[in-house]
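Sample entry (467 residues):
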Amino acid sequence: MRVKLFSLFTLVSLSFSAFAQDEAALLKYGSDKDACEQNLSIYTEFYKQKNYVDAYKSWVYLFDNAPKRTKNIYIHGPKIIKGLIKVVTDETRKAVLVDSLMMVYDQRNTYYAGTEARVLGYKAADMYRLKKGTTEGLQESQSALAEAFTMAGNSSTASVINYYFIATTKLVQTKVLKVSDLIALFSDLSGVISYKEAKLMQDIYTAEQAESLSSKEAKILKKDRKELSTLSDVKANLEKTLEPHATCEKLVELYTANFDTKKEDISWLERAAKLLNKKDCTNTDIFFTISEALYNIDPSPSAAANMGIRSLKRQDYDKALEFYSYALDNEEDNLNKAQYAYRLAQTYGAMNKNVSAKSNALKAASFRYGWGEPYILIGDLYAKTSRKCGELQTEFLKRVGYWAAIDKYEYAVSIDSSVKAKVADRVGKYTEQMPSKTDVFTEGLIDVPTYKIECWYTETVNVKVPK
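Predicted structure, serialized as tokens:
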């Protein structure tokens, strides 16, 4: 009996395996392998020539009959269909092609899993470009963009962010949505933009430090630079569009009026706190109220960081340290850790605990490569304490700390060009206060390249002789 059962099980298993193999072969080659290969060759040749009209018939054969022959079916398909859309004049035919384009993205995610969020982003962006002419099309594309953005999160592309905001803005203009919807969206988008900027800048910095790059790495670097530039433009557009609606005064009025009905809505609280923070409205009662309500409901690292901001504004430094330390210890993402360590450094700096401030600034820099802000903070600490380090001593020793500060500012710019303007003012100010040429000569350092400072810090700095 056991032998018979085993034989039956083996027979079923073999039959299932054969069925699976047949199905895989059918998906890859269709019912006619020769026709499949012939159509692949024809469409590929026309595609290379950018003759999308003649490529379409052979391409659609593969799409319908051999959907897993090659991933290029889904990479090339959108270009082919959009090429036809450009030349087709019949609106009914054009509508069919647009629907077919959407099917390409859906089928790609069915047969080639792993990049669903990115592909959905492509689909949503094309949907907006091709359907934005009607309110119904705008609503459909806005919904798709919302889904793509939610799925991708911090990995959302600049184009998805841009089109999502524009589509929402147009729906506000047509009275389908409210200004409050646009403000809430801006909070979500700006948070992702800030994260993406930090990630791209770090990736670009890391790539630029390499002695050599493979062709693939060079291509990624070029793509990252382009994405960062596009993201900067998108950010500027978002802020320009929302500026009339999101002044501190208007945000405070809006959030104060809605707080009682929204005080247990975590999403609303998070968006409100994020936007008030971004718009530098953190010295307002409503920010303090929202931060506390959010932390009480969900003491997440970001909520604790908001409480840290509140405490720092109130000069309650011990509480600020407590909240920022909690945020740092419970955060997993290094880019967010960098922000929390930086906030700790600022807090210690405000307390004149300079050693701890510098230590946390360096910790922040270790979490996020190519970030200039921590080194600017260290430079500020050196400048702030320069005269105290040389107290009751020579004028030279009172001023030499400005050399250390300028070195840090220059290093910050060398790794992060975005801080160049911020650093320029500081360098100009402290260049006037560094040791004079006479002081340098008196110390015997005219022809000496470096000097070692011994203060609350030890730093070997470049000797800078005024002209």
